[in-house]
Amino acid sequence: MGQGPAPRTNASVVAVKRIVLGVSAGIAAYKAASLLRLFKEAGHHVDVIPTPASLDFIGVATWEALSANPVNTSVFEAVDTVNHVRLGQEADLVIVAPATADLLARAAAGMANDLLTGTLLATGAPVVMAPAMHTEMWEHPATIANVALLRSRGVQVIEPAVGRLTGKDSGAGRLPEPEEIFAAVAGHLDAAAPPKGGSLAGKVVAISAGGTREPLDPVRFLGNRSSGRQGIALAKAALAAGASVRFIAAHMDLPAPTGVELSTASTAEQLQVAVTRAARGADVLIMSAAVADFRPAEYLGAKIKKSDDHADPVITLVRNPDILATLMSDRASEGPAGSLPRLVVGFAAETGDAQSTVLEYGAAKLARKGCEMLVVNEVGENLTFGTDENAITMLFADGTEAVHAAGSKDHVAALVIEAVAGALGSVAR
Ligand code: CTP
What is the pLDDT of residue 3? Predict the structure, then answer.
């Protein structure tokens, strides 16, 4: 069945890959049609394997028309070509989008009761899952355990987005937009694969970036001026050094870089969940996100109106969790057997004042947060935020002498990643 890979028109530009696109039975299956389009437009060969139940959402005709390939769901169709083994064996990448809680459970259990799960067992290709389900299902201990098991076997499980779900629900569990999934798997498809012999080859680096937003009402939020540029530059530098990058994006002015495993978060509390998940099993965590320290005590479901009595509204704030400090104390209580990274890097956006200099504040923060490294930069109206330039000082908890760096955010990122690679050598697992 199927066509051979499309002819290679220009080997240096298009490296045609064979992709298996698995679709399980979630309402978000419609987004997989756009994802398929993106793969096809990039010139790849795609075999779609829907689960039988998913055909209630999108039928075989749609998948056959969009992929230009025959589509089967059962191991008892096209038996002569031994599809359940062949498709997995030939694939360069298997991506399941949406991956329901049921699909994750069956994959984690190694079941093979339809063509998609059979393919997942037979393939030696990288496997990526893009889960989509209601928040309660995503946060159920069974799903958390299944995701952890799949990740421990090397499956890339993309964090679901936070937002509107089916019905009235809203929360974590939304299938990321097709463009985001495409960007998250691009590293497997790029003609020029990242160097594997770099200083972070074989290492997993989790990087948070951007700024959180704390909603006041459906149209207003408390936010900050972080653009995400420095975090994006760090991700690119880590990829260039050969690392696998888990990128946790809060709000950013620019799209996430290609080639990373992307998850998104809006508020500090959501970022805490996403960062903690991504950090588990990683070698390094770099917290470059600007996290709101406070959030409105109350979220008003309807827009706040100017009141008739002209009274000035009062917004009461409560403290957000300190993601970095909590992670450090969790790591300490888990001990050497824990799975949190041994090397944790904080960022400190500081302004000096009459009492202390930027670096004095930085040194105090390094001690307070308890992480291994702190990248300190001076912030202000026209400094750092939203610009392409940065000047930083890296401070090290083990007493290594501070390192200053200045230049473009890409240059600074390369120096931070170089320091991270050096520091990794001295932290015990
Ligand atoms: N951070 C965090 N959780 C927070 C606040 C900050 O994990 N609630 C992280 C940031 O990602 C950064 C580091 O802590 O890596 C320092 O952030 P910064 O805003 O400079 O420090 P704060 O802890 O907020 O201290 P303060 O604002 O009082 O200087």
Answer: 42
The verdict on whether 224 is a catalytic residue reads yes
Cβ-based neighbours of 175, under 8 Å, separated by 6 or more: 26, 28, 31, 97, 98, 130, 131, 132, 160, 161, 181
Question: 204 pLDDT exceeds 80?
Answer: yes
In Å, how far from its chain's centre is CA 80?
40
* pLDDT cut 90: percent of the chain above it: 65
Q: Which residues pair with 395 in a beta bridge?
A: 374
User: pLDDT tens digit string along 18-35?
Assistant: 999 999 999 999 999 999
Decide: 154 and 120 in contact? Cβ < 8 Å: no
Question: Looking at the whole model, is its pTM more than 0.90?
Answer: no
Cα→Cα distances 363→251, 348, 372, Å: 28, 10, 12
Distance (Å) from CA 253 to ligand 1 centroid: 20
Q: In 235-293, which ranges are E strands? A: 244-249, 261-264, 284-287
Q: For residue 170, give the H/E element and its range.
A: strand 170-174
What does the pLDDT read at residue 312? Answer: 82
Does ligand 1 come within 6 angstroms of the Cβ of 344?
A: no
Is the CB of 371 inside a 6 Å radius of any atom of ligand 1?
A: no
Question: Which sign does the torsion angle of CA 359, 362, 364, 367 carry?
Answer: negative
* Predicted local distance difference test score (pLDDT) of residue 212: 97
Q: Which of the listed residues 291, 395, 420 should we mutate to test ligand 1's pocket, taking the one with most ligand atoms within 8 A of CB?
A: 291
User: Given this model, what pLDDT does residue 10 score?
Assistant: 33
Output the CA 28–ligand 1 centroid distance in Å. 35
